[in-house]
Design a protein that fits this description.
Chain B: Keywords: Cell membrane, Membrane, Sugar transport, Transmembrane, Transmembrane helix, Transport. Chain B: Its main location: membrane. Chain B: Belongs to the binding-protein-dependent transport system permease family. Chain B: InterPro entries: MetI-like, MetI-like_sf. The structure holds two protein chains of two kinds. Chain A is an all-alpha fold. Helix content of chain A is 72%, strand content 1%. Chain A has 15 helices and two strands. Chain A has a two-stranded antiparallel ribbon. The longest helix of chain A is centred in the N-terminal third of the chain and has 34 residues. Chain A is globular and about 80 Å long. Helices cover 74% and strands 0% of the residues of chain B. Chain B has 14 helices and no strands. Chain B is globular. Classes of the chains: A mainly alpha, B mainly alpha. Chains A and B meet through helix 1, helix 4, helix 5, helix 6 and helix 7 of A and helix 1, helix 4, helix 5, helix 6 and helix 7 of B.
Chain lengths: 296, 296
């Protein structure tokens, strides 16, 4: 084959993209150095004095960070579980629906919220749950007093998880539905002839048919244990619910960019990045080992 | 599918349909409600009379937006950002995924390149280093900060999706082109790109939605409102809560003071572009996502 001279063209094609990634992904990684410095913006990264691990020590002593880490873990874990189960249930129900037109309509509608931003959906959710909003109007019919839902710290994590499931469950069904179409219809016919009813078919054919997908999604979701969802919480929270709703990412934003404590915010961000990276690597490795999943 | 038409089965079907429709409505009604709120009068909104149909129908909120210069300025910034971002994303995805879809023998170092890409996807320096990098590049208040920072973060996923698609194309295509004396650029532009229309459409639509929806970079890289993209403008105006509002009373007064019909109108216009591209998006994304997966 005449492919000898091709390689240099391949490298040429790769240069612009890697340059882009170098400047905006790799270079910022070196910025983590400031978490080991007394950073002085005037002197820059190269000129600032070293602080060793001081910011990290301070971080572990700070009450704020402990609260923020535990809030993150709680919210993210609840989201992981809910976002694994809800799409699975919905996909199973949709799979049982035989009216194809209705099915397509339902699919079209439930995928939509995934594509809207949390700025938009946050605005809508806050209005729905506002003091004069529809939710309070509805509960008033049953004799409840109006309530400021998003000012209630006890309730906040559940509202966050609930609204996240509402936004994402539809999109999450896609992957299950793809797995469900992979099941051979002849198996259902055979089961039917053997006298298996709906529930037995579900148990013995449908569920085993999507087991691999469910295992894969569960393993991959482990990488999200520290991702409680910045966009969502940033658009829903307020100082009244910081005690249960403030997460690592929102805290880093406020501490770093509003209070200008660059070093501390970077240290906390670094800890999150490192732990997150390890978790994702492990989850990818497990997925590769158990279900032969590969990203490339 | 063969199934009994027993009484029990029919009851199950009816319950199923009702539950499915109920859940589906929960996805679309909040959006519908926002539209009807935006077309109602302020007093009706404040009294909580608006449900799924406008009360005292009027277009005042939209007329007010017509006089809001900043709204239009932000809309235009977002539009520019989407156009630049999608174009750049398209070019880079094409240029990177083709060489990376070659074997490690055809492109020396291919696996090293892939691991670098994966690494940039899984690890990041955090918010503060990113901010300092953009600052050092003198890109604060420039639209390029929005285009390049966001673009770099979504590029890798899009490259992997497209690369996997290229790898699943039959080898005979290359061989036939080589026999005819085609070079790498010819093969890429005349053979690969035309075949990859579904996956490139998916990747471009993802890019449109991402750049339209992203709000955080507008907030941290733009120091003045006049540079805000639309989502950031709305975030600041409608959704965000001033950290100084500390008591429940203040929080309530804040929500009572807000102009709910005007906010609803702004939110509705801001989601309109996504609603418009959604039908196209829906045609491609399910297909595109499964297309990009590694088969074996």
């Amino acid at each position: 084959m005449r492919m000898k001279g091709f390689a240099k063209h391949y490298y040429l094609m790769l240069i612009p993209g890697f340059l882009w990634l170098f400047v905006f992904s790799i270079v910022p990684m070196f910025g983590i150095i400031i978490s080991f410095q007394y950073f002085n913006p005037g002197k820059g990264i190269l000129g600032s004095d070293w602080a060793g691990l001081e910011h990290f020590k301070y971080m572990f002593l700070l009450k704020d960070t402990q609260e923020v880490f535990s809030n993150t873990l709680v919210i993210a874990s609840m989201k992981i579980v809910a976002n694994l189960i809800a799409p699975l249930l919905f996909a199973l129900m949709l799979n049982e629906l035989r009216l194809m037109i209705l099915r397509r309509w339902i699919q079209t509608i439930v995928y939509l919220p995934h594509f809207l931003s949390w700025v938009i959906l946050g605005g809508i959710v806050l209005d729905l749950f506002s003091y004069n909003g529809p939710v309070n109007q509805l509960t008033a019919l049953f004799g409840f007093q109006p309530k400021l839902f998003f000012a209630d710290a006890q309730l906040f994590p559940f509202l966050v998880v609930g609204s996240d499931v509402w936004k994402e469950f539809g999109f999450g069904t896609i992957i299950y539905l793809a797995a469900l179409t992979g099941i051979n219809p002849a198996m259902y016919e055979a089961a039917n002839i053997d006298g298996a009813g709906r529930w037995r078919s579900l148990w013995h054919i449908t569920l085993p048919g999507i087991r691999t997908t469910a295992v894969l999604l569960t393993v991959l979701s482990l990488g999200n244990v520290l991702n409680a969802g910045f966009d969502q919480i940033f658009n829903l929270y307020n100082p009244l619910v910081y005690s249960t709703g403030d997460i690592i990412d929102t805290w880093v934003y406020r501490t770093g960019l509003l209070n200008l404590q660059y070093e501390l915010a970077t240290a906390v961000g670094l800890l999150k990045s490192v732990v997150g990276f390890l978790l994702i690597s492990v989850s990818y490795y497990l997925a590769y080992r158990f279900v032969n999943y590969r990203i490339f | 599918m063969v199934r009994d038409r027993t009484f029990g089965n029919r009851v199950t079907d009816i319950i199923l349909i009702v539950v499915l429709i109920g859940i589906t409505l929960s996805c679309i009604l909040p959006i519908w409600y926002t539209l009807s709120l935006s077309l109602s009068s302020n007093s009706a909104a404040a009294a909580g009379k608006v449900w799924l149909w406008p009360v005292d129908f009027n277009l005042n909120a939209y007329a007010q937006i017509l006089n809001d210069n900043q709204f239009f300025r932000s809309f235009w910034i977002s539009t520019q950002r989407v156009l630049l971002g999608v174009t750049l994303n398209f070019i880079m995805v094409v240029l990177m995924s083709y060489p990376l879809s070659r074997t490690a023998k055809e492109l020396k170092g291919r696996n090293v390149f892939m691991w670098i890409l994966i690494f940039t996807m899984l690890f990041n320096g955090g918010l503060i280093p990113l901010y300092l990098t953009v600052k050092e590049l003198n890109m604060l208040n420039s639209i390029w900060a929005l285009v390049l920072v966001g673009g770099a973060q979504t590029l890798v996923f899009n490259v992997i999706l497209t690369m996997n698609f290229f790898r699943n194309l039959p080898k005979e295509l290359d061989e036939a082109a080589l026999v005819d004396g085609a070079g790498p650029w010819y093969i890429l532009f005349k053979i690969y790109i035309p075949l990859a229309v579904p996956v490139l459409a998916t990747v471009s639509l993802f890019s449109i939605v991402y750049h339209w929806n992203e709000f955080l970079y507008g907030l941290i890289f733009m120091s003045r409102e006049q540079f805000y993209p639309l989502q950031t403008y709305i975030q600041q105006l409608v959704v965000s809560v001033d950290p100084s509002t500390m008591s429940e009373d203040q929080y309530r007064r804040l929500s009572e003071l807000s102009n709910r019909t005007l906010d609803a109108a702004k939110i509705f216009i801001a989601m309109l572009p996504v609603l418009i591209v959604y039908p196209f998006l829906q045609r491609f994304f399910i297909h595109g996502i499964t297309l990009g997966s590694v088969k074996e």
